[in-house]
Amino acid sequence: MWERFKRFGKYRVVNAECRWGIDLFDDLVKLATLEKFCTVVDVGAHEGGFSKLFLQHFPAATVHALEPVQATFDRLQGTLSSESRVRLYRLAASNYTGKAVIRTFANSERNTLVPELTDSLIVEPTGEEKVETLRLDEFLRKMELGRIDLLKIDVEGFELRVLEGCGRYLEPLAIPYIFFEFHRIGAPRSLVAGHTRLCEVDSLLDSRGYRFVTVYTQGVHLNEPLGTYNALYAPLRET
User: Fold this and answer.
1) 74 with 51: CB under 8 angstroms?
2) 186, 154 in Cβ contact below 8 A?
3) pLDDT reported for residue 195
4) pLDDT tens for each residue of 31-86
5) Between β-strands 39-43 and 150-153, what pairing exists: parallel, antiparallel or unpaired?
6) CB 90 within 8 A of CB 129
């Protein structure tokens, strides 16, 4: 296992066919043909970094990018408004349709709909903003989308609520691949609260016919029991 990459100082050369959890698109190639990804929904699109990657790797895809905060949405428009295969929405996906208050921070990647979310990086918010929320099952009906080939979620502790808002569409025939951020595996300690826990999301997705595939580690908080990770889930059987 550990001989499947070559070491050059701090750099590693990896055989992508042998290792999982390094690059999302390498792993999706092992599971499906990338040309089959026709509809991608990017929840928490921020400034469009992932949406640009989806356009690059999925030649047949239309990307639906959701970002609720006005200033961040303006930057998202600046990045992607000229792309013919992108649809932009100033919306927050949720488990209910209506209005919500989002806390905003100097680093807009920390903006969160979770009022109790705390850690050493979430210190003082710069403000609050009222945003529109929409369940994804309603979004699919409004946009007349019968299927999401890949659902990506990065919403700072709100990931489980987004999945709950998928309703009956949360099953592999309608949404075969799900890629989402989380920060803890299990129960929180007193120092941190409100973060997405993999155990909770896994319980929901397992009950709907999904299987855990792999984790991608972006970073580890050395001074508290948190990290920044993404997980990939896929159907138990090919769809």
Assistant:
1) no
2) no
3) 72
4) 999 999 999 999 999 999 999 999 999 999 999 999 999 999 999 999 999 999 99
5) parallel
6) no
Q: What is the pTM of this model?
A: 0.91
The angle subtended at Cα 214 by Cα 227 and Cα 66, nearest 5°, is 70
What percent of the chain clears pLDDT 90, i.e. is strictly above it? 66
Reduced to 3 states (helix: H, G, I; strand: E, B; else coil), residue 51 is helix
What is the pLDDT, as a whole number, of residue 112?
76
Q: Identity (one letter) of the amino acid at 63?
A: V
Count CB atoms within 10 A of the CB of residue 12: 12
Q: What are phi and psi of 30, to 5 degrees?
A: -75, -20
Q: How many CB atoms lie within 10 A of CB 207?
A: 9
Angle at CA of residue 150, ends 145 and 151, nearest 5°: 85
Number of other CB atoms surrounding residue 86 within 10 Å:
24
Kindly report the CA angle at 200 between 237 and 94, in degrees rounded to 5? 90
What domains can be seen in the chain, in order of their start residue? 5-235 (3.40.50.150)
Q: Which string of DSSP letters, residue by residue, matches 70-136?
A: HHHHHHHHHHHTT-TTEEEE--EEESSSEEEEEEE-SSGGG-BS-TT-BBTTB---SEEEEEEEEEH
* Strand locations in the chain (E): 5-8, 11-14, 39-43, 62-66, 86-89, 92-94, 98-104, 127-135, 150-153, 177-182, 210-221, 226-235
The Cβ-side half-sphere exposure at 137, using a 13 Å CA radius, reads 12
